[in-house]
Specification:
- There is one protein chain.
- By secondary structure, the protein is an alpha/beta fold.
- The protein contains ten helices and 15 strands.
- Strand 2, helix 2 and strand 3 form a beta-alpha-beta unit.
- Helix 8 crosses helix 10.
- Bound molecules: nicotinamide-adenine-dinucleotide.
Length: 342
Amino acid sequence: MTKLKVGVVGCGSIARFRHLPEYAMNEHVEIVAVCDIVKERANEMADKFGGQAFTSYEEMLREAELDIVSVCTPNYLHAPISIAALKAGNHVLCEKPMATSEKEALAMIQAAEAGGKKLMIAHNQRFVASHEKARELIANGEVGRIHSFRTAFGHPGPEGWSIDGKDSWFFRKEEAFIGAMGDLGVHKTDLMRFLLGEEFVEVGSFVESGAKENSTVDDNAVCILKSESGIIGTLAASWAYGKEDNATIIYGEKAVLRLEDDPDHSLIVHHRDGKTENFDLGKIQSNEDGGQTSTKVIDHFVDSIVQDTEPPVTGVEGMRSLKVVIAALESSIHKKIVKITQ
Ligand SMILES: NC(=O)c1ccc[n+]([C@@H]2O[C@H](COP(=O)([O-])OP(=O)(O)OC[C@H]3O[C@@H](n4cnc5c(N)ncnc54)[C@H](O)[C@@H]3O)[C@@H](O)[C@H]2O)c1
């Protein structure tokens, strides 16, 4: 079997803890190129995972023979690198948030369609076992009609994660475009769309900054969302939580689901009749686990290429989740409820 040849652009934390180890474990692929503008980082990853080290993605796309490119760079480079890689004839797995605008996201989707290549966005929250189980229970009608939810993703901030620590691009608007809402909030807009199986139509929000020094991006946000069937809920995204919170609660007429809210049970179902079911489905990946868990993103992406199926998180899905975040920013700036058209 000929293996798919992979090039990874950006050799920071997400590449070294998730993409590269997960490609290395996948039997269908071979890492042939790694790229980072910091030469030592590219060299270090090439030594560890194999492949040729590059400091320019343009050069990598010209010189390396590739089938797949993973985009693991700061957010402002997602669209230009993904589009260049797609135009060069590669399938692309791009990190979240997909892009810095709807226009850029559309250009990425069009580049994939024009070249007949796969584009997947790395929304790994969809593959967390408790989330998959909750979606199944909701879709099967076991939760009943849902009226409300609350979801949060907060931790002490990317200075404890990014390879550049407190000097990271995560804190610079020109490179990040948004802060906690783009880093964490978009995970939850995507998760809630996935779990509820419907789109959000309105959002009101406070997207604030001030928790971090030397930062030009937002770091603490609370949004109120309304879905097309009228479900209302809150979404919080913050770099100002002293300890990680990744919990989601869904309030249905037949059951309440508590996802990643309990240290011992990844999913707790409180049934209306008083019965409680605990599910232990394995741990959610966390900045605090040092990359001990698999995101399953790479396996799903590679499978979609090997089996020639649609990737589980398409460019269109990534764009829809991004649009909710962009609308939340608009709401906070203009102090009004913003309508979202998908
Ligand atoms: N899916 C997730 O759960 C998850 C988690 C963390 C980060 N991310 C995303 O992954 C992306 C990267 O984040 P990170 O945490 O690895 O950041 P990081 O700061 O740890 O690493 C970024 C790397 O990109 C390199 N880089 C910058 N410009 C480059 C260029 N022009 N060409 C090549 N390399 C370049 C930097 O030198 C650095 O090594 C971001 O979009 C982030 O939002 C996703």
